Amino acid sequence: MESEASGGISRDDFIDNVAAGILEKLPVAFETWRIKKQLQMSLTPTGVVLLQELDRFNLLVIRIKKTLELLRKN
């Protein structure tokens, strides 16, 4: 990577660009309430596991988003 003095981008700008790119590609959280409503009458053990995993996925997406936003502020 080139230094700022030689015409390249700075380390901070590079990190900001990468973080912005990841944020653009980050999926939105699932609306688990809507899925629960659809599965309400036929909720199977597999459906319960699906909902649990969707909740975990949502937490992960939220954590990644907050971390990238914090990284971009610095």
Automatic annotation (TrEMBL):
Alphabetical GO biological process terms: microtubule-based movement
Question: Where does this protein have coiled-coil stretches?
Answer: none
InterPro entries tied to this protein: DHC, Dynein_C
Domain (Dynein heavy chain C-terminal) ranges: 5-73
Pfam families, sorted: Dynein_C
UniProt-recorded Gene Ontology molecular function terms: dynein intermediate chain binding; dynein light intermediate chain binding
Annotated Gene Ontology cellular component terms: dynein complex
Question: Which protein, by its recorded name, is this?
Answer: Dynein_C domain-containing protein
